[in-house]
User: What shape does this take?
Amino acid sequence: MFHPLLYFLANATRQELARQVHYLKTENQVLRARLPKTIRTTPDER
Assistant: This one.
């Protein structure tokens, strides 16, 4: 009984993480499209 429950929780967690990664990748694409081509950073920011 414990193994199916553990498998269910692990699978649900993996799916949620995959959804979050997909969302963040899409968000980054949208935000990067709004930025200029060259971004100057300071040494501290690197």
Remarks:
- Helices lie at 2-34.
